[in-house]
Amino acid sequence: MLGPAILAASRSDKMRRIVSAAPVTKPVVNRFIPGETVDQVIPIVEDLTAKGLEVTLDVVGEDITTVEQSHAARDAYLQLIEQLAHLGLGETAEMSVKLSMFGQALEGGHELALANVRPVVEAAAAIGTTVTLDAEDHTTLDSMFAIHEELRRDFPQTGCVIQAYLFRTEADARRLAAAGSRVRIVKGAYKEPAEVAYQDKAEIDKAYVRILKILMEGEGYPMIGSHDPRLIAIGQELARQAGRKLDEYEFQMLYGIRSEEHLRLAAEGHRMRVYTAYGTDWYGYFMRRLAEKPANLLFFLRSMITK
Ligand code: FAD
Questions:
Q1: Where do runs of H (alpha helix) occur along 177-271?
Q2: What value of ipTM does the predicted structure carry?
Q3: For 169-185, what is each residue's pLDDT tens digit?
Q4: Ligand 1 pocket by Cβ (under 6 Å)
């Protein structure tokens, strides 16, 4: 029952100030967000790729409030892409972006987010990699899917994320499971009302399997975003049943979570991509990781008390 309370706190400015200022926060944050700058994250990318893993990089940030911040987000990604090109990492590292960081919620935000993300997608394509649009709360998704469709006209490899907890997602999966599409399926990390989303974990898992089956039987490229051992095993089985080869789908997990499983899947010959977030605006991302596993919160609180 802690999860929803933490997710509510993830959108509170007051909690943001308290958590960000606590001296013990940083070491706990570092487990999930291993750097604040491009220079700090590049060695991590090199280390992961040396281990046979692939990477998707997320410059943390969301829900920005000014146009200037939306331009700064675009520029941060462009700087990252420049570094990846310089180091020849364009083949193994792709990018994940949140459109709310590109101005989606501001006035005229749909157009602003599209205008900001397009040069990032263009620059990524120029170095042989691509961008995936993360899924945020359900009110943002029609705009996200429209931007995805628009970008795919020129950059068909642009990916997007769908969330198993939403009732709408089976229909979205059917629409997206077409040739050339790249779709990451996840359970969903936001606090969503019962009118739009399953609330029960078992219901979400069942929906995840139904949706993954649609993706596997379709003609696109499914990206299985989960740390759940049961879903990983089911994913392997569904891929086998659909006659997919090992390079016709991939697994994705978050940096700092079940790292030994990343290596196990890669050693089995699977494509395994590690979602690696970095940057200074880590609060929302960090709080969602706490909400996913109450033990993380207990660890965090214990370190506050024992300091
Ligand atoms: P769970 O049942 O939550 O977890 C299974 C097991 O994994 C747990 O028992 C635990 O051992 C481990 N685990 C899971 N989470 C944690 C954690 N935080 N700390 C420690 N251990 C943990 N959500 C979105 O809404 N939009 C997105 O765009 C999005 N992108 C994602 C990209 C990737 C690559 C991944 C892996 C997740 C993404 N998510 C996104 C988050 C996702 O929706 C889930 O909240 C998250 O993956 C937890 O669900 P799970 O499938 O791992 O299953």
A1: 201-217, 229-241, 259-267
A2: 0.98
A3: 999 999 999 989 999 99
A4: 134-135, 161, 163, 186-190, 225-228, 252-254, 257-258, 275, 289, 292-293, 296
